[in-house]
Design goal:
Elements: H1 15-28, H2 41-48, H3 52-64, E1 68-71, E2 75-78, H4 80-83, E3 99-100, H5 110-125, H6 129-133, H7 142-154, E4 164-167, H8 170-181, E5 187-191, H9 198-204, E6 208-212, E7 214-215, E8 218-219, H10 221-230, E9 233-238, H11 252-264, E10 268-272, H12 286-289, E11 294-299, E12 311-314, H13 320-330, H14 336-348, H15 350-373, E13 386-390, H16 397-406, E14 409-410, E15 412-413, E16 427-431, H17 437-452
Parallel strand pairs: 3-14, 5-6, 5-9, 9-10, 10-11
Antiparallel strand pairs: 1-2, 4-12, 7-8, 11-12, 13-16, 15-16
Helix pairs in contact: 1-3, 2-3, 7-14, 8-13, 10-11, 15-17
């Protein structure tokens, strides 16, 4: 911290919190870069004319926010840019020469383009006034909420129209839910292999994440119970139905155990059910088991088509005003044109028909995977969008991904989804819907060839 120091004149009560906020801002804007060593507590206290305890509390607060790390005998160092700003697991710039199995997308073919073209043509012939003039979200047409309730019933959720917030997709809904349930300084528990954007989002919001152990069946209830006994957990963020990295489905028995633990310790639940009705014969969602404490999120992006960025957030009665305010200040309202498209497709059956089409398409993709890589250790569900593959011993996921990319295939690595400190093992995620069946076969064959070679990536020039 030689080039930047906190401004004593700008500190306010409580001083430790104000000091922590100043340092956090300096980290965010780059004045304190990754790896920067902060002044020893006693020295900084002397320079700012505050107590050592005040500086100690500020450093503890920043460590809780995952912005600092300490090493015995070496000091305290900035860590946020390395951890919190880690990029998404998928490739942001897709090359036409790369088979991109890194980004989680549904299968999209000409049928989707035709449905969108037809829907836009119908709207163009008679544009509803509400699409052009919509500006007050609280006056959203009642038929939009009616369609939302109809779709939520397909997901296994019965809701009141007053408890539903229509959003620009699941990401928006999840952010609103997290802002509603977890103020800065609170603790949120989640699966140790979870949502790739949750860790940076929590860091930006000053929320501390606790990763919970999972097994082949999903979240372990005892791990959740232990965390609740050791910490004051504000909320549980969970992806129980095949959208989680290992594509597991939490059984109804475990869901009820987790719900009971949440009730016992007064923990709210944020349930990401992005696949909704795509997964057949699925257990009841948490929103059905414990509706009074569950924020339920679903959308059309992963199961109908990526461009239909409309989602539904079901909010417990007690938090409706809070969630509505959070949505207003971050998004104001869902995009009227897409809202109109989603409503029309729900009401005329198009959305559900496309879900059924997607289910069949994914089952076909899974057969391709089984033919090429089925003998390798993996976890998935026959209607999931992806396959999770722990790598054989000796393989580094980073070098494996680099090797695959050098051969024209992009994959996502396990570390992108880890909510704890270290990945439990080396693994990759393979999206099955992001490319054509021909390219999928070629990409999986390349993965098989990399696995057949010694666990060493070639030197890249």
């Amino acid at each position: 911290m030689k080039s930047w120091k906190p401004d004593r004149a700008s500190l306010s009560v409580p001083i430790y919190k104000s000091l922590a906020d100043q340092i956090a801002e300096a980290i965010r804007d780059g004045r304190l870069p990754d790896g920067a060593r902060l002044l020893p507590q006693r020295q900084l206290a002397s320079e700012l004319d505050v107590s050592v305890q005040t500086v100690s509390r500020a450093y503890e607060e920043l460590t809780r926010r995952d912005l600092l790390s300490g090493a015995a005998g070496r000091g305290t160092f900035v860590k946020r840019p390395k951890e919190a700003d880690r990029g998404p697991p998928f490739s942001l710039q897709r090359s036409p020469d790369v088979v991109d199995l890194s980004i989680l997308k549904p299968v999209c073919e000409d049928i989707h383009l035709q449905h969108m073209s037809n829907a836009l043509s119908r709207l163009a012939s008679s544009v509803p006034h509400r699409i052009v003039n919509a500006f007050r979200p609280e006056r959203a047409a009642s038929h939009h909420r009616a369609a939302a309730l109809q779709w939520l019933r397909e997901c296994g959720v019965d809701a009141s129209p007053y408890n539903v917030c229509i959003t620009n997709g699941a990401t928006s809904a999840l952010a609103v839910a997290l802002m509603t349930v977890a103020p800065p300084g609170s603790v949120v528990a989640t699966e140790s292999l979870g949502h790739h954007s949750l860790k940076p989002l929590a860091s930006y919001m000053g929320i501390h994440l606790v990763g919970l152990d999972v097994d082949a069946d999903g979240l372990i209830p005892d791990a959740f119970e232990r965390a609740c006994m050791e910490r004051e957990i504000r909320a549980l963020f969970i992806q129980p139905t095949a959208i989680n990295p290992p594509a597991t489905i939490l059984s109804e028995e475990r869901r009820r155990q987790v719900a009971a633990i949440a009730e016992k310790h007064d923990v709210l639940i944020i349930e990401n059910d992005a696949l909704g009705p795509l997964i057949s014969n699925r257990p009841q969602p948490f929103a059905s088991i414990t509706p009074g404490r569950t924020f339920y999120v679903t959308s059309f992006t992963k199961i109908v088509m990526p461009g239909l960025r409309i989602g539904y957030l079901v909010v417990p009665q007690k938090y409706i005003a809070t969630a509505t305010n959070r949505h207003l200040v971050t998004n104001w309202m869902a995009t009227p044109l897409l809202e109109e498209l989603a409503t029309g497709w729900v009401q005329d059956g198009t959305a559900l028909n496309l879900v059924h089409w997607q289910r069949k398409a994914l089952r076909s993709r899974h057969r391709i995977f089984q033919d090429i890589l089925g003998g390798m250790r993996h976890s998935t569900h026959p209607e999931a969008l992806h396959v999770w593959m722990p790598l054989p011993e000796g393989y580094s996921e980073a070098s494996f991904a680099a090797h695959a990319r050098s051969l024209g295939v992009a994959v996502a690595v396990a570390s992108s989804f880890v909510t704890g400190d270290e990945p439990p093992y080396q693994a990759i995620r393979l999206s099955l819907g992001s490319v054509s069946e021909e390219d999928l076969s070629a990409g999986l064959a390349t993965i098989a060839s990399v696995l057949a070679a010694p666990p060493e990536a070639p030197l890249l020039r």
